[in-house]
Amino acid sequence: MNATDQSLHRHFVAASDHGFARRLIDVSVAIFAAVLFSPLMLLIAVCLLAEGGSPVLFAQTRLGAGARPFRMYKFRKFDVRCDPHGLALTVAGDKRMTTIGRVLAATKFDELPQLWNVIIGDMAIIGPRPESLAFADCFHGGAEAVLRYKPGLLGPSQVLFRNEASFYPKSTDPLTYYRETLFPAKARLDLSYYPQRTLVADVVWMVRGFLAVVGRVPPSPIKI
């Protein structure tokens, strides 16, 4: 853990805003979804093995509630020969993606393994998107308050930025654009929702998130 991570961890070591009711809903929804989607997850794993071999899962350290690091799991979208320390973002037309990976990126089915993260308590169903350590230094100027909330599989940022890969201007460095434009926009969105959230509102975002993933409801316009 570098100096930035240690500072965030010390500042938010006691931070948490996830009560018993939300935790019960999270576990119940995650177990139900894991059972429901288990045939699909098995099919995805078989397709990934047939296309490029193992590993099937991609694991990466992310920042959780209180800036605690945890291992987040996704289905692998990139070729197994890709540099694991390459660009920390996925952009439109990313040449690292395999054929199956492009399908997973379009459907967001690559995130199904995060149901395990929800079950074991690292993540919630509804919460801010967990950031990678590469962008830990972005949590400053008030944005560090986002780390008071358990990261989630769905939520306002995940729905409204569903097609994030298409946001990056071709003439701009994606890392710079993310740090200076997209990350602050997400932080503002999160901090306008989570301090005043309700269980009913969380359920609404669960429904909106599901509908957005299956393409039935287009994301709302956002101001960046």
TrEMBL record:
Bacterial sugar transferase domain location: 22-214
Spell out where the chain crosses the membrane: 29-50
Source organism, top-level taxon:
Bacteria
Which Pfam families does this UniProt record tie to the protein? Bac_transf
GO MF entries: transferase activity
What keywords does the record list, in alphabetical order? Exopolysaccharide synthesis, Membrane, Transferase, Transmembrane, Transmembrane helix
Q: Which family does it belong to?
A: Belongs to the bacterial sugar transferase family.
Q: What is this protein called?
A: Sugar transferase
Species assigned in the record = Mesorhizobium vachelliae
